[in-house]
Design goal:
The complex is a heterodimer of chains A (270) and B (475).
Chain A lengths: L2 H17 L6 E4 L3 H6 L1 H13 L3 E3 L9 H6 L2 H15 L4 E4 L2 H18 L2 H10 L3 E3 H8 L12 E4 L3 H6 L5 H7 L5 E3 L14 H4 L1 H17 L4 E4 L2 H13 L5 E4 H6 L7
Parallel strand pairs in A: 1-2, 1-3, 3-4, 5-6, 5-7, 7-8
Helix pairs in contact in A: 6-7, 12-13
Chain B lengths: L13 H9 L2 H23 L4 H17 L1 H14 L3 E5 L2 H14 L4 E4 L3 H5 L2 H7 L3 E4 L2 H8 L16 H12 L8 H18 L2 E4 L3 E3 L4 E6 L3 H7 L3 E7 L3 E2 L5 H12 L7 E6 L9 E7 L3 H6 L14 H5 L3 H4 L10 H11 L17 H5 L6 H16 L3 H13 L2 H15 L8 E2 L7 H4 L4 E2 L6 H10 L3
Parallel strand pairs in B: 1-10, 2-3, 2-4, 4-7, 5-8, 7-10
Antiparallel strand pairs in B: 5-6, 6-9, 11-12
The chains are: A alpha/beta (270), B alpha/beta (475).
Chain lengths: 270, 475
């Protein structure tokens, strides 16, 4: 653990009694299938931030996917066993942290009625008990821990895209922006139309490729307008989409998950 | 003559129609501009209402309660409308509604009708049926008149000619009204329409309207509009025929207090629309002597029977979801192949077709939720879209996509299989990746992705591999 981390643990320990901030939580990480496979750096960043704040991270290895892709595309039957799997993996967790708004929206908005449809009493009760403990990463920091400054340093020009599920389903509001504003060295620029969908939408991006690409073009134009070095969000799915377009257009602008910005400190400044 | 009506039975799939629509730069510019203007106006008048969320909830409750007791309120409406001197007709489907209306028009002795803007008459393609029966329909709503004279099709529920700009409208009027000197200022166009229509209002003896609300308690019918042309059609003809889906009923007169706050603000960004007409039966002193109401089912009871999709019927046709939808804003309304475009169209149209047609529409959404956010009666459109997708999948049976989904489902049900798939994926995609670690082309279904985007090669190490190593290193 770095020196900064230790200071932070100490700070949190002290402030914990003053501002009812909690330390020493046992946090279960639900990395999500696509972050696990495609964006391991985001997972590492989440671990880094949480540990720096004095919490213990656990990773139940039987976890796979929340079932969002199946559920949203119309394959609800395939999503049902994945719900049961999730519950088995995270039952009894103190807190479940997920670096993806859309997966949390899937869990929060759909699991209760899916459990009812499956009809197992125990499962319905488990879901009910587990749901209040499931947090999107930024939400965990701002709402559960009541934090804004997590001791990050990130000396880059950044713009923030509010992903639809975070904005409308989880009602994250300005939580992610408050976290970003507290980052040292950051040059945060507002994105015009930040509430507009980037056009990803899961299988929408391939089923309606032309419309999706047109929506992406609008989003990229707004990102380029900010002259930011990087576009951030709470969802790597949106970012993968935006980054895919930015790379195709050879813009040189990159995308980075919010957790990776918050994990930056002076020791590892990029 | 009117253009061939939009018909979900024969329309191309949404992705195909959308691609064609997006090739029309002028159309996209018009749609973007118009939806921007309406959205900004809406946002202003919604922001000044401290109880907007309560109003939305009240609107939802009124509509939900109505749908749960629809049979009761329809019979109450019929009884009260009949008592007030109206004649109520029931139509099982579009065909029966058309037949009833055509015969009522014939019985009125007129071979022309003046029409108030009505999406329900568009839904049942009434104009073609009237023309086939030798009756000339005259649209009196400015936008609908533009559509009729331009032999075009409506692209928006509230503003049917939203895809046309002023210059295009001037061109249509110049050509069809024979006005070579016509200007393109709003008042020039309104004046031209006024002169064109006034003579028709005074001459034609039969009017056809839709309805915004049918009030069960009084038997009254309510129409909201901006131009006053509707008021003319409701008061001048001798015979008035209103056609409405059975979903348009509301229980009490007092419910208008909520709904007439929600509708104009959501639809046109106005605190109150310029003309609100409520009439009940007939009156010997004034207005039409004969009044008919055609109550049409046309698949609405099937929608009602589907518990998860029932909320579709709560719609009050404000089109706020269309203006807010990032998909609609790219494509405009024609791509939906139906008079009901945008998010509400994506859920309503397939259901009006009993899911036999328009199966690509439930997928015409990124599920961004902007529609739900603005809906004045809180219809959870994304939820219904997902429900309908499930229905489509069940109807379609086995396909390449279904097979892929089933395989993915199996993979996710086992940690071992998931890890194997992660490794396999990395091996399978590696020949596609360039030296810079990016993929510019993908095969098959995934080709849609690389049409406009690159994909980064999978990293060498998954998160769980890293986690495991970290554990072993005792970190």
């Amino acid at each position: 653990m770095s020196c900064v981390g230790e200071i932070y643990s100490l700070l949190n320990f002290v402030s914990g009694s003053l501002f009812s901030l909690e330390v020493g939580l046992r946090v279960s990480l639900f990395i999500t299938c696509y972050n696990d496979t495609l964006f391991p750096e985001t997972g590492k960043a989440v671990v880094r931030v949480l540990e720096r704040l004095g919490h213990t991270v656990e990773f139940p290895t039987g976890q796979t996917c929340c079932g969002q892709m199946h559920y949203n595309t119309g394959y609800q039957a395939e999503a049902m066993p994945l719900l049961e799997r999730f519950v088995t993996q995270f039952r009894g967790a103190e807190a479940v942290v997920v670096p993806s708004s859309s997966c949390v929206a899937m869990i929060r908005d759909h699991y209760p009625k899916m459990a009812l449809a499956i009809g197992k009493k125990e499962l319905i009760a488990d879901v009910e008990e587990l749901l209040p403990k499931v947090f999107e990463f930024s939400e965990f920091l701002t709402k559960r821990l009541g934090l804004e400054d997590v001791g990050a340093f990130y000396p880059h020009r950044v713009t923030y895209h509010a992903s639809c599920h975070g904005l409308r389903n989880l009602e994250l509001g300005d939580g992610p922006v408050r976290l970003l504003k507290a980052v040292r060295g950051i040059d945060l620029v507002e994105l015009q139309g930040l509430e507009q969908c980037c056009g990803f939408g899961g299988t929408f991006a391939v089923k309606n490729a032309d419309v999706s690409a047109a929506m992406l073009a609008d989003k990229m134009a707004a990102v380029l307008e900010t002259k930011a070095e990087a576009c951030t969000a709470c969802d790597n799915s949106c970012l993968m989409h935006i980054q895919g377009g930015l790379h195709r257009q050879k813009t040189g602008v990159r995308t980075v998950h919010l957790a990776e910005i918050l994990a930056g400190d002076e020791g590892v400044a990029q | 003559m009117s253009a061939v009506a939009l018909d979900p039975k024969t329309a191309p799939t949404f992705p195909m129609a959308a691609k064609a629509a997006m090739g029309d730069a002028q159309l996209r510019k018009n749609v973007r501009h118009a939806t921007d203007v309406i959205q900004a106006k809406r946002a202003r008048v919604v922001a000044e209402m401290p109880d907007w969320q309560d109003l939305r909830e009240a609107g939802k409750q009124i509509r939900q309660h109505t749908m749960e007791n629809l049979d009761f309120y329809l019979e109450e409406f019929e009884a009260n409308c009949t008592r007030a001197g109206g004649v109520v007709h029931w139509a099982r489907d579009a065909e029966e509604a058309r037949r009833t209306i055509v015969s009522l028009v014939k019985a009125s002795g007129s071979d022309e009708v003046i029409k108030i803007k009505s999406m329900t008459t568009e839904e049942i393609q009434l104009n073609s049926a009237l023309e086939a029966a030798g009756v000339h329909p005259i649209e009196t709503d400015l936008a609908e008149l533009i559509i009729q004279l331009g032999e075009d099709r409506p692209s928006h529920i509230v503003v049917p000619a939203l895809h046309k700009n002023r210059q295009q409208i001037r061109e249509i009027f110049q050509r069809t009204m024979n006005l070579p000197e016509l200007g393109d200022k709003p008042h020039d166009l309104a004046d031209a329409a006024r002169v064109f229509l006034r003579e028709k209002f005074l001459r034609v003896k039969t009017g056809v309207s839709g309805a915004n609300f049918l009030i069960a308690e009084t038997g009254g019918v309510c129409i909201v509009e901006s131009e006053g042309n509707g008021r003319m059609c409701l008061t001048l003809p001798e015979t008035l025929i209103a056609v409405a889906g059975i979903d348009k009923v509301i229980p009490r007169y007092q419910d208008l207090e909520v709904l007439l706050q929600l509708l104009p603000r959501s639809a046109t960004g106005e605190r109150m629309n310029p003309y609100t007409s409520v009439w009940t039966g007939v009156d010997t002193a004034d207005g039409p002597r004969v009044f008919h109401v055609v109550l049409m089912d046309n698949a609405r009871t099937e929608i009602l029977a589907d518990e998860e999709a029932r909320q579709t019927l709560n719609c009050i046709r404000c089109a706020a979801c269309q203006n807010a939808c990032p998909v609609y804003r790219q494509t405009g309304g024609h791509a939906y192949g139906s008079v009901y475009a945008g998010p509400i169209g994506a859920i309503l149209t397939p259901q009006l077709q009993e899911m036999h047609h328009a199966q690509s529409l439930p997928y015409a959404s990124s599920l961004c939720g902007a529609c739900y956010e603005v809906c004045p009666v809180k219809i959870n459109i994304p939820e219904v879209l997902i429900h309908l997708r499930n229905k489509v999948v069940k109807q379609k049976g086995l396909s390449a996509e279904a097979l892929a989904m089933r395989t993915m489902g199996l993979i996710f049900r086992s940690e071992r299989r998931f890890r194997a798939a992660q490794r396999l994926g990395r091996v399978a995609e590696s020949p596609l990746a360039g030296k810079d670690g990016w993929i510019g082309w993908l095969p098959g279904l995934l080709g849609g992705w690389t049409q406009a985007r690159d994909l980064q090669e999978m990293p060498k190490e998954t998160f769980r591999d890293w986690w495991e190593k970290r554990g072993k290193n005792g970190n």
